[in-house]
Amino acid sequence: MARKSYKPQKKGTGRHVQLAEWVIVSETWATMPTGPRALYIELRRRFNGGNNGHIFLSHRDAAKALNMGRDTVSRYFKDLIERGFIVVTKGYFLGPEGIGQSTHYRLTEKAHKSKPATKDFMKWRQSKKQKPRRKSYRFGPKRGFYRVGKPCHIYI
What is the mean pLDDT of residues 96-117? Predict the structure, then answer.
């Protein structure tokens, strides 16, 4: 016999996405821009506890869910893969009837099949890149533009 619920009028809180504290305080998460963070949360939303390695989200669906362009979302996917939050388990392809199949992903913070979580993003370190110097241009003789130090031979 099933037990009656404590508050029968409540239907439950619904689905939610929970991020672990150790993920949020990691250097990788702290240095990641907000766009890839939102995409990761969308991927986590599609994780149901047993489908790790089979989580699929096309770039078109991700762009629609995040209200962004497909090219922007593509950069976000590359950033998540580079930082080690997700791994591609099966690439995209054209199915037998000509219907496209999207890429399948695995979340590295969760266990996959009988293997423990790899947590690849914990090994990621930010490289110290120098900011590119802005080229400064000056208006030169003969109404042309000269780069400071070297002429760029553009005349109007």
Answer: 92
Q: pLDDT tens across 61-102, in order?
A: 999 999 999 999 999 999 999 999 999 999 998 888 888 889
116-125's contacts with Cβ under 8 Å and 24+ in sequence apart are 118/87, 119/84, 120/84, 120/85, 120/87, 121/23, 121/26, 121/28, 121/29, 121/83, 121/84, 121/85, 122/26, 122/28, 122/84, 123/84, 124/27, 124/28, 124/83, 124/84, 125/27
Q: Which of 115, 60, 128, 61 is nearest to 87 (CA)?
A: 115
In this prediction, residues 33-44 reach a mean pLDDT of: 96
What is the domain partition of the chain in residue ranges? 21-129
> Cα–chain-centroid distance for residue 150?
41
Separation between Cα atoms, residue 115 and residue 88, nearest integer Å: 16
CATH code of 21-129, in short, is 1.10.10.10
Residues 130-148: tens digit of each pLDDT: 566 565 555 555 555 555 5
